[in-house]
Amino acid sequence: MKINENSALVILSGGQDSTTALFWAKEKFQEVETITFDYGQRHKRELGCAKKIAEIADVPNKLVSITSLSQLSDNAMVNETEIKENEETLLPTTFVPGRNLLFVTMAAAYAYEKRIPNLIIGVSQVDYSGYPDCREETMKSLEETINLGMEFPFKLHTPLIYKTKKETVLLAKKLGALEYLKYSHTCYKGKFPPCGECPACKLRTKGFEEAGIADPLLL
Amino acid sequence: MKINENSALVILSGGQDSTTALFWAKEKFQEVETITFDYGQRHKRELGCAKKIAEIADVPNKLVSITSLSQLSDNAMVNETEIKENEETLLPTTFVPGRNLLFVTMAAAYAYEKRIPNLIIGVSQVDYSGYPDCREETMKSLEETINLGMEFPFKLHTPLIYKTKKETVLLAKKLGALEYLKYSHTCYKGKFPPCGECPACKLRTKGFEEAGIADPLLL
């Protein structure tokens, strides 16, 4: 098989982390593409953000619809459930079971077709809101699964896995990606200007504050 | 979390193997449900078969649409590509990259929501047409990935993994599932009566012949 070792596919949600991961990939690989998933999220606004960011970063963006994910489970990301800790699972009600596993697997199916071996996802197990599918252990296991399941030498890169939000902001600055974060979306409630009160908004605000940088989204 | 150890979710395609796996599950677990995926397959007929089989087996059947899978890759399962060996990958052109990985991950997301720990898939690495996502090694890795990714004690059962088609036919007989195979669908071309010539039809015919049993579908 003709594999281009210098090509990469970035899972781009349109949020702060995946935007930063995109610019990390652009520095590291010659050919970069992006893939974005519409899973029926409440904050649909991020889909337009992903498109816009890909456009100005001059990389292709493939939009894939898996809205059936919202039929499978009941959570605050796809419906109006209150955003808090689930009393039974002790995970946030914003946890979408299987989300990152599905994203990476679908991205891998697309990358397989295009013979792209490098996959990039901007998850962090430091500021990860308690989602078990943002941990390095999960990503390592998933990398092995997609390699075995498609007989293809995928490498799953997680450049932000050990970074706090503050460190991610500083990395974005270093990569020259700060101005692009103006177009990123973070608010779980899908609001613009951001609500400033949901866990995602709070985490973003804290990261920029600790980095001593003004959030371009709010300028 | 309240987990019902005696509940199971079967991935039911409507084919011979998953129908047999369903009856295996019905013997082993008290509460059995099924899940079926519409991925834009050429042989759409199997979706109706799955529904019918679930009905007469008296188990719930959840139909999930992930037709975007057919946008991600180009293969003989979702389009009119000729069914043969792919000269570049050496895999059959009917290989849908990531298919079983996606099915199991989506089934797991649904099972998580219903607190069902047992997942059943009727793959076989003996008569597996060379699909890498039908091997035990892949399924073991996938089981670990979904456990880690959802922090849930899933057990992924593969009752047919070491069985030839002949042995699967004999198992169906033992389980009293033979008559249900009348409603199953196998033909890759989606034909009824089956074409008898595609690799799936040939494998089915061989299995019944070797078992010395008439295929109820053809009676």
Poorly predicted regions of chain A are: none
Which CATH C-level class of chain A is it?
A: Alpha Beta
Number of helices of chain A: 7
Write down the domain tally of chain A.
1
Average pLDDT, all residues of chain A: 91
Separation of the first and last Cα atoms of chain A: 48 Å
Shape of chain A: globular
Strand proportion of chain A, as a percent range, falls in 5-15%
Structural class of chain A: alpha/beta
**CATH fold-level name of chain A:** Rossmann fold
Q: Report the strand count of chain A.
A: 5
Q: Which pair has the most extensive contact?
A: A-B, 43 and 42 residues
Name the helix and strand elements of chain A from N-terminus to C-terminus, one letter apiece: EHEHEHHEHEHH
CATH superfamily of chain A: HUPs
Describe the oligomeric state of these chains in a short phrase: homodimer
Percentage of residues assigned to helices of chain A: 25-40%
Radius of gyration of chain A: 16 Å
| Main beta-sheet strand count, sense and barrel state of chain A | 5 strands, parallel
Under the CATH scheme, the architecture of chain A is: 3-Layer(aba) Sandwich
